[in-house]
Amino acid sequence: MDDAGVFLCHDFKHELAEAISISAPDHLFVLTDETTHTLCSPLLQGIDELKHAHQIVIGAGDIHKNLETLSKVWQSLSNNGATRHSLLICLGGGMVTDLGGFAASTFKRGISYINIPTTLLAMVDAAVGGKTAINFNGLKNEIGVFQSAFRVLLETDFLCTLDAHNFCSGYAEMLKHGLISNYETLNDLLAFDMTNIDYSLLKKLVEKSVRVKENIVKKDPKELGLRKALNLGHTIGHAFESFALNRQQPVLHGYAVAWGLVCELYLSHVNAQFPRDVMRSVIHFIHENYGSFIFTCDNYEELYQLMLHDKKNKGGIINFTLLNDVGELRLDQTASQGLIYETLDFYRECMGI
Ligand code: GLY
């Protein structure tokens, strides 16, 4: 179920052409959203293998990651002669790779797909690891399957068109990968200047980061154990994300994860002796680059209820991934309501709100 191959491209056009040739599809489809169609499709120009590809363009943004859009993609595949031997190329951020991967995995019981992520978040997380999904019934990623892409091609040149907020959003998942791997990776990430991006250094950091995820997914593709490591920062992060969404003030996923990391490192410190100095330096980096998410003690109960409804929980018990130290995982941890409230107090104090 792990991705058959995540390739950091040196010659993107050549590597894409080669992947298409190996797949030898009878029909080829390229799925983009309105944004990536304009910004990124030009980078596919001049690839002979794509000359007869059928273009499918969907609306941009998470609001379009739904059954209606999925149906439109199935319809395009069906109306344009797709068979089991056809190939779908998903070019875009996590919304395109999640929905496109699901469309491909279900059409005629599954056709091959290639992910070409164009955002940092999709490169280091969403497009890698075979999780595909759409939102349904007001719930994020409610319907989907595990089905790996035939190839994931990483072309970091796409990142030059990424705005600062989306850059920071993806970088939060890289910080998470640093925390669950080792000090060397984490320290390199904390030393990176987010305000003056060195793209050649970034390329190296992206490669390291994606390998962290790839290695975990290879060992546990269906999240039965080890893959839960990737949930660090996400239990409280998802609560922040939903809280903001409920107030029609959505925050980018990675920002919520970064703020969630602040809280879950504190929980790791209290419950698992995670070193205080490392916690402090990660929090400092997050405060500097992500600002703070604002809430008051009147919001604790609502945030707690959101954590109780997290889909990672089992039997109504809030599930956390914590750390004893960098790279030392403590899976399937929980915390009392009192400790969670204390954590929210800590967050507000150290983030100055
Ligand atoms: N985004 C976490 C995972 O792929 O498991």
Q: How would you concisely characterize the structure shown here?
A:
This protein is an alpha/beta fold and about 350 residues long.
Overview of the structural elements:
The structure is a single chain. This protein is an alpha/beta fold and 353 residues long. It folds into two domains: 6-161, Rossmann fold, CATH 3.40.50.1970; 164-350, Up-down Bundle (Dehydroquinate synthase-like, alpha domain). The protein has helices at 12-23, 34-39, 67-79, 94-106, 120-126, 164-181, 183-191, 199-219, 234-246, 253-272, 276-290, 300-308, 337-350, and strands at residues 6-8, 28-33, 54-58, 87-92, 112-117, 134-136, 139-143, 151-154, 320-325, 328-333. The strands form three sheets. Strands 1-8-5-4-2-3 form a six-stranded parallel beta sheet, with helices on both faces. A two-stranded antiparallel ribbon has the order 6-7. It binds glycine. Residues 125, 129, 131, 223, 227, 230 line the site of glycine.
List the helices and strands and how they pair.
Blueprint: E1 6-8, H1 12-23, E2 28-33, H2 34-39, E3 54-58, H3 67-79, E4 87-92, H4 94-106, E5 112-117, H5 120-126, E6 134-136, E7 139-143, E8 151-154, H6 164-181, H7 183-191, H8 199-219, H9 234-246, H10 253-272, H11 276-290, H12 300-308, E9 320-325, E10 328-333, H13 337-350
Parallel strand pairs: 1-8, 2-3, 2-4, 4-5, 5-8
Antiparallel strand pairs: 6-7, 9-10
The structure holds glycine.
